Amino acid sequence: MPKREALTIGELSRRTGIPVKTLRFYSDEGLLPPAGRSRANYRLYDEEQVVRVELVRTLREAGVDLATIRKVLARNLSLEDALRLRLAAVEAHVASLSRIAAALRAALRTEPTEKDLRRLWTVTRLSNEERKAVITRFYDQVADGVPVDGEWMRGMIEASSPKLPDDATPAQLEAWIELAEILADPTFVANMRVMAAVTWNEEIDHAALLRAQSEAVAAAREARGRGVDPHSAEALAIAERFVWAAASANGRELDDAFAEQLRKTQDPRALRYWELVSAMTGEPLSPAYEDGRWLGAAIARFLER
Predict the structure, then answer these.
(1) What whole-number distance in Å separates Cα of residue 195 and Cα of residue 264?
(2) Residues carrying CATH 1.10.1660.10, the chain
């Protein structure tokens, strides 16, 4: 059997392109034991160590730590398992960077304060259960003192509490940030309380209100299908019929007080809420959403008159 060529550490450095200082470090750490020693007690290496150095370098460039590399070289951990561990770490790091980037983008939309940045940082780092708790707290505030149906409320919470993956996209994270900001806005909470009070008021003729809503949505769908603008005279007529029917169902006159109450129930952020949920889940919005948005725009324009 031919004798294997012995390489000094300098020759090994030239073969591999790795500095002598680094090779000495690897050797001292037990990653690169010498194949032997010269008569002057200098470290000597052979082709097996060349291969070993290349493996160490490849794993280091992949970000694998020295302790894990030591296990791979000692056959205490397979190369595949080591790479899987590193991949998981890289993916977690990428997800963390995505959350940071989303928070920075949200902060830069305005003139941020330190408090804003801390809040955004916290919001992006919440777990799925913590995100659900934020949404639950919002519905609890809306329903406080209002006889809201418990099953309906639980369904709304589940529908709007999407479980974001660990590798959520920037768009998903930004949607969550915007949604959390809407839910934390006291004016939105107040307006949704008005909507809840109107919806769950036992003195309202609910059958008449539901009939008015169904007729208005059907008219909006038909008009929207024909390309009618929600600010047109035809759209305003649809909105007016609904507003008068809603006032009647509430046992109210269409006066300034009722108009103001209706304005609050038409907060555009209520529709934006579901747009953001859709962005988080990746599920498309239903056609009924577009009908509702068209009708909401028509009602808002009518109430401006």
Answers:
(1) 7
(2) 7-77
Where does the pLDDT of residue 64 fall: very low under 50, low under 70, confident under 90, or very high at 90 and above? confident
Of the two residues 291 and 201, the one the predictor is more confident about is 291
Q: What's the Cα-to-Cα distance from 209 to each of 201, 247, 251, 265, rounded to whole Å?
A: 11, 9, 11, 14
pLDDT digits (tens, 9 = 90+) for 243-296: 999 888 888 888 888 888 888 888 889 889 999 999 888 888 887 888 988 998
Task: Quote the CA–CA distance of 93 and 49 in Å, as a whole number.
Answer: 32
CA atoms within 13 A of residue 132's CA, in its CB half-sphere = 14
CA 173 to centroid of chain Cα atoms: 3
The C-alpha atoms of residue 164 and residue 24 are separated, in whole angstroms, by 46
Q: What is the tens place of the pLDDT at every residue in 146-169?
A: 888 888 889 889 888 877 776 777
Distance CA 304, CA 201 (A): 26
Question: At residue 8, what are phi and psi to the nearest 5 degrees?
Answer: -75, 170
Q: Which CATH class is domain 7-77?
A: mainly alpha
- For residue 12, give both structure tokens: 């090994």
